[in-house]
Amino acid sequence: MKRRRRRTIQTLFSEKGFFADVPPPASGDFTTSNMSAAITSLASYGSDSDSENESESSTSTEKVDPVDSDATAHLKPLQPGHTMSLAVLNSAPEVAVKEAVETGIHLDPSLKEVAFNPTYETMFAPEFGPMNPYKSQQMAAPRNMLSGYAEPAHVNDFMFEQQRRTFSSYGYALDPSVDTHQASSCSYIGAVDEAEKNKGLTVFESGQKKPEKRKKIKGGDAGEIDNFLGPWAKYIDEKDVAKPSEEEQKELDEIIAKRQKKGRNEEEAPGEEKTILHVKDMYDYQGRSYLHVPQDVGVNLRSADAPDKCYLPKKQIHVWSGHTKGVSAIRLYPSSGHLLLSCSMDCKIKLWEVYGERRCLRTFIGHSKAVRDICFNNSGTQFLSAAYDRYLKLWDSETGQCISRFTNRKVPYCVKFNPDEEKQNLFVAGMSDKKIVQWDIRTGEVVQEYDRHLGAVNTITFVDENRRFVSTSDDKSLRVWEWDIPVDFKYIAEPSMHSMPAVTLSPNGKWLACQSMDNQILIFGAQNRFRLNKKKIFKGHMVAGYACQVDFSPDMSYVVSGDADGKLNIWDWKTTKLYHRIKAHDKVCISALWHPHETSKVITCGWDGQIKLWD
């Protein structure tokens, strides 16, 4: 057992290098001296604090001499006499101590508020981190807003408001960057000349002194009731009667003369009415005038039934030319449609044949300004005309005689006979002064006024078996009235609505087609509810600014309308698709009428002065 332990110790010591310089013994066993020397070396290499080991080692060293003094030289303490020069090699890198670098707590320069009391050194310490080499001088400069650095100028609210108002009123203000105590021309910005002229006065400083108050006559004693004037006393320099000077009097005389002249002109305005017959004989061999409905035209014009199926017109078959200016409206003879009445901006009204030779039969002259609207009575024997000369005139269709004239000193924009057979003596006119005026032909007097619109009245359309009528106006509204009741019982106006200066009732009496100024035709129900039919909106034409008349085909399968480009547009009623577009006129195509007895005949008129027939 001892032998094995010795071997182990020897092996351990040889591994540790303690016997590097000791020559191996001759025999295989360790000597006692060698053993003790090794133990001593191990003990001194180990802990110095072990007192036992120290004593043992001291005794053992005293007793035993080492084999080789160099082997234990590093274990012996240095002798004081000997000095040794040692080359010190320090291979550790230089590392800055944390305390030396961290000079204080970092403050973010963008902070506006600090929750503790920083020292001066902390507040003014330089910012850490490398400089951005790509920043220009302008970018590197301190900025507190996008365009640069704005110095805070402490101006109280009153001063700021005073200078702002002065600048907006007079065009100059004090320069906030200049000391205000040294006010000079350079301390103002804006209109410096104006500032010098006004001596730098602000809006709150009036340069002029207040004028002295006008003195009043002393009012006497308050005890005397009769002589006491008090606050009602007159001013000392007050004049009781203001007389115009000579120059003013001349001006006044001129104005009065002009007004009187103007009034006389208006009174004289209804020019003489005359008529021209353009055909050779007014009556045929049977004594029938041109009002007689022809029966040899291939269509039964006397039937009340509409054609079963209508077709799209394809080409122009006739042009009626005779008007020298734009045509403003056309109307077909009631029920038969064998005659066509047209009014124009040349102040004339003409009656044309629709069948046969298509001649101009008669011209009615009597208006001094452009004729705006015309309307036949139920039988067609008479018609009304409304013109910009502020007169409404009733004409005889056959003889051309002017039966009567009506005016209320306002421009009539539209005129309509009451279609009821019993009320053929009454008619209504939409005026420029926002009123709808009702006249009686027999007396020539106004019998009713419907005054609810907020703009000039553009159209009047009778609905619901002529018991009611619908009016549209420049106020972008649609109003429904009971006949002879001057309060509208229905008012339709939406923020999205535009004015509708042309309205047409459908042949079946169920729908109203309204030409809206936002380039679309809107369809309203014409029975009780007057609701907008959102499924039927006809678009695709340009009419903004023009009252282009709309019409339906007799079988209700098509909708026709002119437009601002002079085109005739035809839509399908069911699908609201734009089927056909024909270039009809050189200027605005203001009206389109579908003949009530024909399957495909459409009449158009335009501002080029022509009336055209299409088939």
List the helices and strands and how they pair.
Elements: H1 2-16, H2 32-45, H3 51-63, H4 98-101, H5 120-123, H6 137-140, H7 157-170, E1 172-174, E2 188-190, H8 192-197, H9 246-268, E3 274-277, E4 316-321, E5 327-332, E6 339-344, E7 348-353, E8 360-365, E9 371-376, E10 382-387, E11 392-396, E12 402-406, E13 412-417, E14 426-431, E15 436-440, E16 445-450, E17 457-463, E18 468-473, E19 478-482, E20 490-492, E21 502-505, E22 511-516, E23 520-525, E24 532-539, E25 550-552, E26 558-562, E27 567-572, E28 578-583, E29 589-594, E30 602-606, E31 610-614
Antiparallel strand pairs: 1-2, 3-8, 4-31, 5-6, 6-7, 7-8, 9-10, 10-11, 11-12, 13-14, 14-15, 15-16, 17-18, 18-19, 19-20, 21-22, 22-23, 23-24, 25-26, 26-27, 27-28, 29-30, 30-31
Helix pairs in contact: 2-3
